[in-house]
Amino acid sequence: MSRISTVKFTGKSGVAYPFDVYPFDMLWDDGIAGVYFVSNRHKNKLKKNIHQSLLIGETGDIQSIFPDHPKRDKLRKLKANMICVYRKSNHEDRKKIAADLVAAYSPPCNG
Length: 111
Hints:
The protein is an alpha+beta fold. It has a single domain (about 5-110), classed as GIY-YIG endonuclease. It contains three helices and five strands, in the order ββββααβα. A five-stranded antiparallel beta sheet has the order 1-2-5-3-4, covered by helices on one side. The termini are far apart.
């Protein structure tokens, strides 16, 4: 896989989670379990990359939901260009982390 970079997203709890950043159109060749954070990454006025959250979720196998996610068309309209992944095998942990991040970022595609 061609990871672009890493980024930390902080949940409402104050916990920072380290994510690997990939292109939105990534073709996944393995079944990664984890939390995903779909974003529009762009540069702010200070030329620093920032991620606008669009969708946050969790999966036991990212290959099974991307690139054919049911909200893919909406994500494209919102200019999704990155998918960030925090690897986590435990399902209950993934659910808690995703909820923590959704509470902090309120992504439009989670509503």
